[in-house]
Amino acid sequence: MARGISYQAKDILFKSLSELYKNQALDVYGLHGLPKIKALLPNEFPAVQASTKRSDTLFLLEDDSILLLEYESNNRFIANHLKYLDYAYRLLDTYYKTEKQIRPIRIVVIYTSDVTRVEEQLHAGDVFISSKAVLLCEFNGDAIFHAIEEKIRNNEPLTAEETMKLILVPLMQSRYDRQTMIEKTIGLAKEITDEPTQLHIIAGVLTATDKLIDEHYAKKVKEWMKMNKVLRLLVEELEQEKELAVKAAMEEIEERMKQTLQETEKKKAIDIAKNLLDVLPIHEIAKRTGLSIAEVADLAKEMEASLHNKEPQ
């Protein structure tokens, strides 16, 4: 993988890819008859040299065989297969030392649309290695992208096959350059509302395009993936705070409206009481207006004082 992804975000990619491929068949790649994927395995092998040897993707299949899934954008058949032979030796050696058994190994190579012809067998006397090739030049990436894009825009769930096809779209035949298709695919994946599916696809694209993706862009995507859960929690917290603030504001508005209504009703009651002071006793006015006897008595005194002040001296 790109230097900015393989170590710092390995845990995120590994988890997402594990959940994506678990129990999946490889029919989408045209690989019929292979057992389903049982688990994704760590893809780094111990090496005598200072550098670490690592396959692209390593699976344990349901029959307990091991699948090496490699992505290539060149047809350097001999060099590539010598590399796979090295991977196979390290796997065989590791499992024999730990389990005292030889596990069958299968090799599948997915070639980008740049490669149109391949060889699948390398003979070196008594040493022989073979692989199964998947040529993505035979896939119309633009057509597949637009069909899946329409489903996502309509908020329709993707099938397992569509999910795996979308991951490989940047490696298929397209009128766009490779980096543009990588960015378009990841951008489309971000529109998926189901977060696990969203992250699975992005992790898959990062893995499949590792040898081709712009390193700076890959680092940005990796940071987005790492921050996604944190941001979601932050948004949820802000939404909760917003709901509480709205609730408090509504309660305050209701209280003010209640107070205003009470004040309006009180003012009407006072006006009615003033008009009745000359015709009804205080206790009757209080009964009809809802005012207390003391309040009506105070009104009577105020009106009497006001009349007294208006009389000529």
Task: Record the SSE blueprint.
Blueprint: H1 3-6, H2 10-21, E1 37-41, E2 44-45, E3 53-54, E4 57-61, E5 66-72, H3 77-99, E6 105-111, E7 121-124, E8 127-130, E9 132-135, H4 141-153, H5 160-168, H6 178-189, H7 195-208, H8 215-276, H9 282-289, H10 293-310
Helix pairs in contact: 2-7, 4-5, 5-7, 6-7, 9-10
How is this structure best described in words?
The protein is of the alpha/beta class and 313 residues long. The chain is 56% helix and 13% strand. The protein has helices at residues 3-6, 10-21, 77-99, 141-153, 160-168, 178-189, 195-208, 215-276, 282-289, 293-310; strands at 37-41, 44-45, 53-54, 57-61, 66-72, 105-111, 121-124, 127-130, 132-135. The strands form three sheets. The chain has a five-stranded mixed sheet with strand order 1-4-5-6-9, with helices on both faces. Strands 2-3 form a two-stranded antiparallel sheet. It has a two-stranded antiparallel ribbon with strand order 7-8. The longest helix has 62 residues, at 215-276. The radius of gyration is 38 Å and the shape is rod-shaped. It starts with a helix and ends with a helix. Mean pLDDT is 81; it is low at 1-9 and 47-52.
User: How many beta-strand runs?
Assistant: 9
- The low-confidence runs, each spanning 5 or more residues with pLDDT under 50, are 1-9, 47-52
What radius of gyration results from the CA coordinates? 38 Å
Q: What is the mean pLDDT?
A: 81
Strands of the largest sheet, in order across it? Answer: 1-4-5-6-9
Q: How helical, in percent, are the residues?
A: 55-70%
